[in-house]
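Internal ticket - ligand job 164, methionine sulfoxide:
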Amino acid sequence: MAQRQENQVPSKTQRYDRLISEIGLVLEGEPHRVARMATIACLLHEAFADRIWTGFYLVDETKKDQLVVGPYQGSLGCLRIDFSRGVCGAAATRGQTIIVENVHDFPGHIACDSRSVSEIVVPVWDPSGRLIAVLDIDSDKPAQFDREDQQALERLVKNIFAKA
Ligand code: SME
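stdout (structure tokens):
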């Protein structure tokens, strides 16, 4: 029985649980936001197949209606995104996670990489409740993201960025 359990493929939530613990350990004692975002982008990107882009768009402190690209892994990302555009802009404006099963069905989707098919964008807040960024993950396969991803990624960014 124990043997069978060992051979079971972990669920997505179990994989996220391990990953979130690992990220917490790697970042222990590291307060710098860039180091935190770069580490998260790397470990999230490496952990799952079929991801073509994993990273952060930051609220630009000098142009507050724009997001500017932050630490990421994958193909070349667009440098700036208006709050009024794209999945990232919509998630930042609404302050809500957005899951897009097929980007061709999302009006205004920005195709930084034409291979992108599905996407999840999660808002990131600081301890005072100020929106500081969005976490954007893109796949070249349809419907790669669901509530499991949403719950795990929201937990991750809350643990790392929203705790004082
Ligand atoms: N697809 C995003 C733009 C960012 S890139 O995909 C890295 C959007 O529509 O906001």
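Auto-summary: The longest helix spans residues 12-27. The chain has a mean pLDDT of 94.
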